[in-house]
Amino acid sequence: MIYEIPPEGASLRQGDIFVGLPRVDISLQRVPVVTQDDEQIEMTWDDVVRDGNRVTAILAVQPVVAIVVSQDCDATRAPDITLCEVRKFREVEKKCANTTAPAKWVDIITQQARLNQKWFYLPPDPQVGFQDKMGVDFYVTIRVPRQDLDGLRRLRRGRLNEIARAHFRERIAEFFRRYPYDEWYPLNAEEMTQYQKSHPDAEAYPWQTIAHLGDG
Predict the structure, then answer these.
(1) Which of 50, 55, 83, 84 has the fewest CB atoms within 10 Å, i.e. is most exposed?
(2) Collapsing DSSP states into helix, strand and coil, what is residue 181?
(3) Structural domain span for residue 80
(4) Claim: this prediction has a pTM higher than 0.85
(5) In terms of domains, do 107 and 136 share one?
(6) How many angstroms separate the Cα of 130 from the Cα of each of 44, 133, 204?
(7) 140 and 64, same domain (yes or no)
(8) Spatial separation of the C-alpha atoms in residues 145 and 35, rounded to whole Å
(9) 150 and 214 share a domain?
(10) Tally of CB atoms within 10 A around 70
(11) pLDDT tens figures, 170-209
(12) SS3 of 84, please?
């Protein structure tokens, strides 16, 4: 498919796929802290900052699949490496939760991949351990020390080939430089009324109210 298997000694690169990397989950409202008396108490992160002291916290850690998003130069020299979590595609793109028809999959994988900048599609390939369609979730980032990751190259299952890696690089850039805007802002009042029938959460701008019907 779109993957290749690098030698175990190959340097880290953007597009390298790892298994079993730690994702740390923390609630800023309920931080389990171990006191100097080895008691466990809960604090808010605001309390921790206000106290100004270094604390020992108990955090939930789970092993996940992740892909390197740091550029090649950073992957070989930077102190930390940034990766994004990889999960089943149906979890990353909720619109395809019940998709089964091949024609519908083709639409999602081709057309939606151009429109939705929040994920990157990874096809199944048992060689890299993907039994299902997978997706890179650009919202979920993981930071690990480069030297530590370099020492765990045995957890690398594969990497994107050159065609996929070039596409992946552009998708990362598109995601982080994207301009957030409400796509409905140029609609007039009548058009906005129609738009809200399929997008009920969209809030009209002042120029899209009934009072401005004559302005369009």
Answers:
(1) 50
(2) coil
(3) 3-180
(4) no
(5) yes
(6) 39, 7, 43
(7) yes
(8) 27
(9) no
(10) 21
(11) 999 999 888 888 999 999 999 999 999 999 999 999 988 8
(12) strand
